[in-house]
Amino acid sequence: MKIVLKHLTKQFISRHNKKEIVTAVNDFDFEIPDGKLIGLLGPSGCGKSTTLNLICGLEEPTEGRIYFDDLDVTDLPPENRGVGMVFQNYALYPHLSVRQNIVFPLENLKGEQKLDRESMNQRALEAAKLVQIEELMERKPNELSGGQQQRVAIARALIKTPGVLLLDEPLSNLDARLRLQTREQIRRIQKETGITTIFVTHDQEEAMSISDLIIVMEKGVLQQMGEPQEVYSKPVNLFVAKFLGTPAINVFDGYIKKHKVYIGKEVVGERKVSDQEVYVAIRPEAFVPDTKGKFSCEYDRTETTGRDTSIVTHHEKCISDYDIRAIVSSDAKIVTDKNNLIRFRLKDDKVHVFSKVDEKVI
Ligand code: ATP
Question: What's the gap in Å between 208 CA and the centre of ligand 1?
C-alpha cells in the first residue's frame, strides 16, 4: 500500500502559551512507496509522532489529505484504516497472557469480520511465529524481557494484517545489544510481510541501517527524503549534513572567490558560483593525512575506538561545537610540522559547501 500525503499540515495551540500556534507538520506533500521500510528521522519535537498519528487517524489534520493507494482515508476512524501501530512503551495489557494480548485486536471484530476462537488462536500463532515468540504464548508481559515484550506488541499490530505498519520509537527502551537484535528482526519481518512500514527514531544510525528510504524532518518541515546513502552523501542543506553521520560532519566558515572554495587561505574545492561567504562541511572520512595535502589543522591527539582511528585537530575557522575529527586508516602516518600542523588531502565528494543565506547546498 502506498501512502500519499497531500499538503498535510497539523497545528496545535502551544502547551506553554495559549496564544501561540505550533506547526508540528508543515505542508507534507510526498508519497511513501508501497512495500518499503521508511525511517522517519529528526530531533526531538520535530513532529515525527504527529506524522504517525495523522497517518493512523489518532490526530485530525488542520489541512491536507491522506491517501492509502487511491483511497482518501482522511476522514476514516483509526480502526477502519487498516493500520498497525507499535508504541515505544509497548502498551501491553499486564493481566493478559501473550496470546491474549496478541489476539486482542480480533476480539471486537463485528459482523462478517468476526472470527471463531480457533481461527483467532491460529492467527495469533502465525503472528507470534513471525516475531519468534511462539514459545512464550502463555506468559504474562512481566515475565518477558523488554525485547520480547516489544515483539509481542509487533505481533499484536500485525494480527489484523494491516496495509501499513507504524512504529513509534520502538527500540528506545532496549539496551544496545537488544536494540540491534530487535531492529534486525523488524527489518526481517518487514521484508517477509512486505507491509509498508514507517519507523520513527531520532537515532540516525538506526534509521540508516535498516531503512529503504529515510525522511529527515526538522520543525515540522521535510528536509530530505531518499535512500540512506544518498541522503548521507548528498545532503541538500546544512541541517541534514549535520544531522547524519557519527562522528558528526566538521563545519567551517569559508568563502568562494573566483570559483575556488577557501577555508582561511587554503583552497578546499571548486564551485562555479559568484564570490560569497559559505559554510564548508567536511566528513570525518574525507581527510587523508598527506604531507603534500592542501589543508592543514592543528594536531591535538589520536584516538582509537574499536576499529576506528581518529585524528583530533583544531582549526580557527571551525565552527562546530566539537573538535575536528578525521577518521583515518589505522596505519596512517601522522606527521606534524614545527608549528604542530598536520596536512591533509581532502576527498572531494565528501566536502560539502552550503550558502550562508539559506544553508542550501551549493
Ligand atoms: P519526540 O522525538 O520528542 O517524541 P516528535 O518529533 O515525535 O518528538 P511531536 O511529538 O510530533 O514531535 O511534536 C511536535 C511538536 O508539536 C512539538 O513542539 C510538540 O510540543 C507539539 N505537540 C505535539 N502534540 C501536541 C498537543 N497535543 N498539543 C500541543 N502541542 C503538541
Answer: 23
Contact 37, 210 (CB under 8 A): yes
Cβ < 6 Å from ligand 1: which residues? 12, 15, 22, 24, 42, 44-50, 202
pTM for this prediction: 0.91
Q: What is the pLDDT of residues 247-271, one digit of tens each?
A: 999 999 999 999 999 999 999 999 9
Q: What is the DSSP string of 222-275?
A: EEEEE-HHHHHHS-SBHHHHHHS-SSPPEEEEEEEETTEEEETTEEEEE--S-S
pLDDT digits (tens, 9 = 90+) for 313-342: 999 999 998 999 999 988 888 899 999 999
- The domains found in the chain, sorted by start residue, are 3-236 (3.40.50.300), 243-355 (no CATH)
Whose Cα sits closest to atom 16 in ligand 1? Answer: 24
Query: What is the atom index within ligand 1 of the atom nearest the CA of 47?
Result: 11
Best mutation site among 8, 14, 15 for ligand 1 pocket (most ligand atoms within 8 Å of CB): 15
Q: Tell me the CA–centroid distance for residue 288 and ligand 1, in Å.
A: 42
Q: How confident is the model at residue 358 (pLDDT cuts 50, 70, 90)?
A: very high
Q: Which DSSP category does 193 fall into?
A: H
